[in-house]
TrEMBL record:
<keyword id="KW-0862">Zinc</keyword>
<dbReference type="InterPro" id="IPR007527">
    <property type="entry name" value="Znf_SWIM"/>
</dbReference>
<protein>
    <recommendedName>
        <fullName>SWIM-type domain-containing protein</fullName>
    </recommendedName>
</protein>
<keyword id="KW-0863">Zinc-finger</keyword>
<keyword id="KW-0479">Metal-binding</keyword>
<dbReference type="GO" id="GO:0008270">
    <property type="term" value="F:zinc ion binding"/>
</dbReference>
<feature type="domain" description="SWIM-type">
    <location>
        <begin position="97"/>
        <end position="144"/>
    </location>
</feature>
Length: 231
């Protein structure tokens, strides 16, 4: 397994739990103990296979934040950076994507209080009195590694389903392409053929996005340079 991009961000959880429990959860996750995971009723639900007559436990993990109402804003960020979407399908983390998440303090990356948040919000059907049981940690490792391999799945930690997010990003891309084509037609229609390509260039994604870059946490608005690059 290649080095995890996301595991280091979850160190507050590993440090809050007995090391033997962390090792056991890591082994179980590597062995494929998580047979299913989905977003359900405002939580991440996972089925974790165990030994014994019960055969599996149901785990529910709280979202790190709720971005469900802000899917259009996140989709616009992805529409601005098709290279991030391409990296997602290639199973690679674009360094600029990681820098974007960190520099804008987006809640897909946990903070120092994440262990307490999980202790209060995580649930498992096992008999362990500690909310951070092996099954919860196993599910967490699975989700982290899954997002390592499919970067946009990191948004599951804030309640955004990958397929819905990609569909919304595709719709925004189509709108941008349509706006660009309209700018070209307008420039040509008024006889400014020589300025047509300049008009299209001026109608870049950053201009199109102005006024629409609402940040889900209301703290920072992600910044991009003209030409789809970040500030």
């Amino acid at each position: 397994m290649k080095k995890s991009v996301l595991e280091p961000f979850w160190r507050p959880v590993w440090d809050a739990v007995d090391k033997a429990r962390v090792r056991k959860a890591r082994q179980e996750a590597k062995a494929g103990a998580v047979v299913h995971a989905e977003l359900l009723r405002g939580e991440i639900w996972a089925q974790v296979r165990i030994s014994g007559p019960r055969r599996s436990c149901q785990v529910a993990l709280p979202f790190l934040a709720h971005y469900e109402e802000h899917i259009e804003a996140v989709a616009k960020w992805l529409a601005m950076r098709p290279d991030w979407v391409a990296a997602h399908f290639a199973g690679e983390w674009d360094p600029e994507f990681e820098a974007f998440l960190k520099s804008n303090q987006l809640d897909v990356l946990p903070g120092d209080s994440v262990a307490d948040k999980l202790r209060w919000g995580a649930k498992c059907t096992c008999d362990d009195s500690d909310p951070l049981c092996v099954h919860v940690l196993t599910a967490l490792f699975h989700l982290i590694w899954d997002a390592d391999e499919h970067p946009l799945r990191v948004f599951r930690f804030v309640g955004l389903d990958e397929e819905s997010l990609l569909a919304a990003a595709h719709d925004w891309t189509a709108q941008w392409v349509g706006s660009t084509e309209a700018a070209l037609r307008d420039a040509t229609a008024v006889g400014q053929t020589g300025q047509a390509m300049e008009a299209v260039s001026a109608w870049d994604v950053a201009t199109w996005l102005q006024g629409g870059g609402t940040n889900p946490v209301g703290r920072l608005v992600p910044h991009f340079r003209t030409g789809d690059r970040m500030e």
